[in-house]
Design brief:
Elements: H1 3-11, H2 15-18, E1 21-28, E2 36-42, H3 47-58, E3 66-70, E4 75-78, H4 82-91, E5 98-100, H5 106-110, E6 117-122, E7 128-138, E8 147-152, H6 162-174, H7 183-192, H8 202-213
Parallel strand pairs: 4-5
Antiparallel strand pairs: 1-2, 1-7, 2-8, 3-4, 3-6, 6-7
Helix pairs in contact: 3-8
């Protein structure tokens, strides 16, 4: 959590900025069944904080790279390094199209947007892609931390092999106890025993967010 942003705004007396939050609906693209959640997210937090919140809500383990892309502003937000500046020069893109997720706050890029959609990608091997839809802006948010207000579906376990692997996981989950499994399904069942994989639960997710981002008081 970017506590320094919060402390800075308090020290500067910019309390209005602390009360701004964005209602975001995050949906898994190409999911075999509707898989989404709605997150109230404070605007003073960074895009890396949003990434961490998504990790909490999906039970993903933050073992892979990620990026956000805002089509309206042609902006890519990711963990930046020296190689990114070199890459921008090679392909002819202005470097200011890239924003560091560790320092760029949500309000910096979403302020002024009424309703828009942007993209989130995680684990370039499995290729998870999410659509993030800005539903509304709340200027009277009283919590310091993110809060989930709704959600549905089952999020795929980390490293299950992308959408194709996720379909196999769901197919296995639908099988009745005692039903015969193929050798591949037996291997998958043993692997799943070591993963945290279940229906989306708002109370559990908010407890995880509170643990990750600290007490809201």
């Amino acid at each position: 959590m970017t506590q320094s942003n919060y402390d800075y705004l308090v020290s500067e007396g910019k309390f209005e900025a602390l009360s701004v939050a964005y209602e975001l609906k995050i949906s898994l693209k190409y999911a075999p069944q509707p898989t989404w959640f709605v997150l109230m997210f404070p605007g003073y937090l960074t895009f890396d904080d949003l990434h961490q919140a998504i990790m909490c809500c999906t039970n993903w383990m933050d073992c892979h790279l990620y990026d956000f892309y805002l089509p309206d502003k042609k902006a890519t937000i990711k963990l930046l390094g020296e190689e990114d500046a070199d890459f921008s020069d090679i392909i002819g893109l202005p470097q200011n199209n890239y924003f560091d997720s560790l320092s760029t706050t949500i309000s910096e890029l979403l302020n002024g947007c009424k309703k828009c959609k942007f993209e989130y990608s995680y684990d370039y091997g499995d290729g998870w892609e999410c659509v993030i839809e800005l539903l509304s802006k709340n200027n009277n948010y009283t919590n310091k931390i993110p809060l989930v207000t709704a959600g549905k579906g089952i999020w795929p376990p980390e490293d299950c092999g992308g959408i194709g692997g996720f379909r196999n996981v769901l197919k296995l989950k639908r099988k009745q106890d005692g039903e015969e499994l193929t050798e591949q399904e037996q291997d998958l069942a043993e692997w799943l025993e070591e993963t945290d994989f279940d229906e989306f639960n708002i109370d559990d997710v908010n407890a995880m967010l509170k643990h990750c981002f600290g007490n809201e008081d």
